[in-house]
């Protein structure tokens, strides 16, 4: 079913919700009015095929990661291509394309906004590099961080200077963006993380398995 949801996100205010479908369609809904505000179809991918009426046809890039900016004004959509996109929530127009060349298409591209909403981090689990972008213009900030193992999940502390990366070797690495330093937690864990998050003070890291 090409309309089956593969990713869902809601903005912090509860005004909007976004749904990414298996066929590459992203829909934004007004929660109050229970109505569709806009829809965006990803470009056709030559490596992704959908079968309709017994025929194989190109399918849109599959979006599997959605994230709203803290103010709810922008939506990040990342998926099976080499690109992530910043979408204006009010109009549904694409504000910028974030070209993450090292992300493997099969692994997909993920992204998360800083708590202040001024920058965005993107990564792919088969890529060793976390890239930082201006969340308004989509321009690269030149603050890329290379990790020894690809990250599955990222979380950014409230002051924006510390990033936690849950990597494929099952270690959580703390990356200081200001000092460009990186250190792994001393005890590796065998848990499979589903999500990471900092407390408001930034003193504690929450791990969901």
What does this structure look like?
The chain has strands at residues 5-10, 16-21, 25-30, 35-41, 44-52, 55-60, 63-68, 74-79, 83-88, 94-99, 110-113, 119-123, 129-134, 145-146, 151-156, 162-167, 172-176, 181-184, 195-198, 205-208. The protein is mainly β. A 4-stranded antiparallel beta sheet has the order 1-2-3-4, with no helix packed on it. The chain has a 4-stranded antiparallel beta sheet with strand order 7-8-9-10, with no helix packed on it. Strand 19 (195-198) and strand 20 form a beta hairpin. It starts with a strand and ends with a strand. Mean pLDDT is 76; it is low at 45-58.
Q: What is the H/E string?
A: EEEEEEEEEEEEEEEEEEEE
> If strands are numbered along the chain, what order do they take across the biggest sheet?
1-2-3-4
- Low-pLDDT parts are 45-58
Number of helices, where a helix is a run of at least 4 consecutive DSSP H or I residues: 0
Average pLDDT number? 76
Principal-axes geometry comes out as globular
Spatial separation of the terminal alpha carbons? 28 Å
Sheet/helix structural class: mainly beta
Oligomeric state: single chain
Q: What is the tally of beta strands?
A: 20
Radius of gyration, taken over Cα atoms and rounded to an integer in Å? 17 Å
Main pleated sheet: 4 strands, antiparallel
Q: Helix content range of the residues, please?
A: under 10%
- The proportion of strand residues reads over 45%
């Amino acid at each position: 079913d090409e309309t089956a949801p593969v990713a869902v996100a809601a903005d912090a205010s509860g005004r909007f919700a976004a749904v990414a479908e298996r066929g590459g369609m992203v829909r934004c809904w007004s929660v109050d009015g229970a109505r569709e505000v806009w829809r965006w179809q990803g470009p056709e991918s030559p490596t992704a095929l959908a079968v309709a009426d017994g025929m194989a046809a190109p399918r849109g890039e599959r979006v599997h990661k959605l994230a709203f900016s803290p103010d709810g004004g922008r939506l990040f959509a990342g998926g099976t291509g080499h690109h992530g996109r910043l979408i204006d929530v009010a109009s549904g127009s694409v504000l910028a394309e974030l070209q993450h060349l090292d992300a493997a298409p099969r692994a997909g591209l993920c992204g998360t906004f800083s708590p202040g909403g001024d920058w965005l981090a993107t990564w792919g689990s088969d890529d060793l590099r976390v890239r930082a972008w201006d969340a308004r213009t989509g321009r690269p900030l030149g603050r890329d961080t290379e990790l020894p193992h690809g990250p599955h999940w990222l979380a950014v502390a409230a002051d924006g200077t510390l990033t936690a990366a849950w990597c494929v070797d099952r270690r959580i690495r703390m990356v200081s963006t200001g000092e460009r330093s990186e250190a792994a937690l001393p005890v590796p864990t065998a848990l499979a993380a589903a999500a990471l998050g900092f407390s408001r003070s930034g003193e504690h890291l929450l791990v969901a398995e």
